[in-house]
Amino acid sequence: MxxxxxxxxxNDFEISSLAxxxxxxxxxxxxxxxxxxxxxxxxxxxxxxGTLEVKAISDQGKWASYAMRYExxxxxxxxxxxxxxxxxxxxxxxxxxxxxxQLFAFLASDFKLKVMELPTGKIAVYDNVKRYELAKDGxxxxxxxxxxxxxxxxxxxxxxxKVIDSxxxxxxYALNADKDAIMYASSQKDYSxxxxxxxxxxxxxxxxxxxxxxxxxxxxxxxxxxxxxxRETDSANKAITVNYYKIAGKKLFMxxxxxxxxxxxxxxxxxxxxxxxxxxxxxxxxxxxxKDLNVENPNIPEIWHGSDxxxxxxxxxxxxxxxxxxxALWYPDTGLCLQVSDDEMPSIMLSGQQExxxxxxxxxxxxxxxxxxxxxxxxxxxxxxxxxxxxxxxSVDPNQMGFDPFSNKILYYREKNWxxxxxxxxxxxxxxxxxxxxxxxxxxxxxxxxxxxxxxxxCTKDGKNILLYDANDIWLVAIDxxxxxxxxxGYEKNLVYRITxxxxxxxxxxxxxxxxxxxxxxxxxxxxxxxxxxxxxTGYFVYNDKSKEHPLVYEASKIDEIxxxxxxxxxxxxxxxxxxxxxxxxxxxxxxxxxxxxxxxxQKKYSFGxxxxxxxxNTKDQKLKAALFYPAHYNPIKKYPMIVHIYDVMSDxxxxxxxxxxxxxxxxxxxxxxxxxxxxLMPDIIYQMxxxxxxxxDCVTAGVNAVIGKGMVDKDKIGLYxxxxxxxxxxxxxxxxxxxAAAVSGAGVSDIISYYFNISSNGYFQSDMWRFENQQFxxxxxxxxxxxxxxxxxxxxxxxxxxxxxxLWTGKNDRIVPWNQSITYYLALRKLGVxxxxxxxxxxxxxxxxxxxxxxLSKRMMEWFDYWLKGESQTESRETSAHKK
Length: 885
Hints:
This protein is α+β, with helices and mostly antiparallel strands. The chain contains 12 helices and 55 strands. The N terminus and C terminus are likely disordered.
């Protein structure tokens, strides 16, 4: 009996254990099943992924258009009814546009224009169309049978498809802002014609019809009351006149600049950027010196003077391109003409009423170690040509200057405040001195990437106020300096509010080297974009001066690409790292969105990773963040290898969905790595002025240790990757720490002293000293003011410390970081016996553009990490990295 009891207890124990195990299996069965039904994604499936492109919403919000783009160019255009489950799919369609609520048109791959009636789905097809326009809300269809730069046939049809006008020899055309009129230039066998067609009440006017000429460079004024254009009057000597036409009185004015000014060496610039004043009385255009055809003797030495304000190499580049164009002014009614800018003052901005010009020369103070130089600003009165100095040593950053569109007052940023200059009263007024906030990103605790002012987006409709940004909010500031009020409450919520770009008036004409302000009506809804910099939630808010800001959509995801209808209906894109972008629709007062389209639905078949935001501190007790991406099929009882991707602020990639692909300009794709069984860490770096290298070491190692402390990552299998400035940081990090088992550095700097003396050719020739003294490298002083800082932050000085296997890659034609920076590090590591490899891509720049090179780099980088972090042979990992965990 006693034995029975013992056995019984044993059996009871066994039964209860079995019961518990059974219960556990039943409880977890759905999880196991879900894990088993999700397949492993391999590189053969990458081509199934496409990119969602949000296109447009119709005026009344009844229809939305979007597209999917694929690497094999099997692109597709979609049109969908926002209220009903009704959609149309057009494979290989492109350039889709709405014509009101009635029409949708797009170009097919076989040079056909297809126009669909939205209510019925009926499609009309027009052959031999390479370009098209929809005018007057789709009431008129304009087709052209050849590409840009080719003379072609332009046909105008009504909405029924009937051709009502046809013009041969079209060389150029321009629709006005409201798309209810078109100006065209045509060249026939016996004559050339400049004409205007109005669509409101159909009319066709020949503005000018001449022999032996051509018309080009066509432009409307902002209110469609007048036009300007150039005419080449003689095909032999290419003489050019400026023309201005007032539509109301059908009056044409012509200016022969060379004859008018008696100039033998100046001519009208063919690529003129016109600006017609708001009052229609002034026409601004561009002139340039006639090109000197005498070629310099190549055997004559170049003379580089130490006193040159402009680097010889850049002056030589500019001379090869031709003279720097200058701006001239013409009063058509009076015939008065004058040159406004010149060689001494080549840069120009126009005041809001175009009665004054602000002139400066960014090279006036010679070699400056700043991206935006400082210059003396002069104000020219365009009525009499008089000139006065208004600002000394003012930054030429266009974001630090603005203009009141209702007057000629000039807004500028100086001494941590916004000021306004009144050219009539000749007074400078500090607008923001009574407010305690920061209008720029300067921070003594965190050296910014580059000094920047948060900005002045525009002004209010009543003409009494301007709008300003601080770090978080939008402010309303009286133009007379009497008041300064914060409109939004972003600071309290860790939100950054900015006016979304779709609210700007893109019809504003050129202001040459400055910006034209936008006028905002705060009594109507204004769409704001919002970003939470603490957790990277994003969204959109609707603001007006009565209800203030109210969320339209805001959540822990990346929300962007919004479009707005005329009646406050919206479409936008939402995504997270493991949710492919989808298109959503919402009206202003709705509390929930309707999903119109989910891209890449095939993802549900496969296992994807996830992302989370980490918070931790560095050794200086500074709070830091990092985005951590989990491997697909993550198993919490297993430890994984990890890749650390660095640059500057990287945690904002938290919600970015990334299609798996080998087509990447920098060779790195976070999804490729999570699918291949890696964690990926993207940490933020806070910089101390004078110590970019040690700042990176401190912040990156703190992030790595934070992840190691979670017990998910094998501390001996951590890799490091960075490109450009991230390449420099990678080069420095591996010289200071051995926590990385392998690293890849793309187009990185290894010797900052030699790079300090480099001349960059990215756009124009410029000494790279500014990168160290006032920008990303954050030394803050010249080499000769702090040699020790340059030495202690230069990776090459510590190369003997490196034990980490390092793969270097570079483009042989890199215009930003010369490829010899990679060679320098390669030679040092080769000399020191460190495991290294260097990839040099001929005919490539700072990032790779050739698709074959992109694939090659992506696969070689993956192979490098698989070899050093997973122990796979390099040939094996090249072939199987996408299949193995």
